[in-house]
Design brief:
- With 120 residues, the chain is mainly β.
- The protein has one domain: Thrombin, subunit H (Beta Barrel), CATH 2.40.10.
- The chain contains no helices and six strands.
- A hairpin with a 2-residue loop joins β4 and β5.
- The radius of gyration is 18 Å and the shape is globular.
- The protein starts with 8 loop residues before the first strand and ends with a strand.
Length: 120
Amino acid sequence: MPAPYPYGETVRIIRTGASPGRDPRGQPLPGPDESFDVKGCVITPRAETPSVGGDQQQARDTVIVGWTVYAPAGTALRTTDRVRIRGVVCDITGEPGDWGRSPFTGTSGPVQFAADRVTG
């Protein structure tokens, strides 16, 4: 099935694989990363405007904090996934939202998620 946005971008989803066992304290060990590409995504900058008069404003304008991504319908994402966008690794923030099926056209909508740059 072709990507819904012919000029969309490809992002790479990075997912922690199954645990190979447990550490000496009984905690699960992280498995090796698994990854796959999602083609035909629309990527838009996501901005945050500090509160007027708040501590964070300090004569600053809107700050870009990450991206909003619209992935093709049916893209299976987890809140624990990471995503590489334009070479930058980001965390998926919050629950990915499935737009479902349009009552007007019957077509499936995108899966929308927020991606924040990983720092530190």
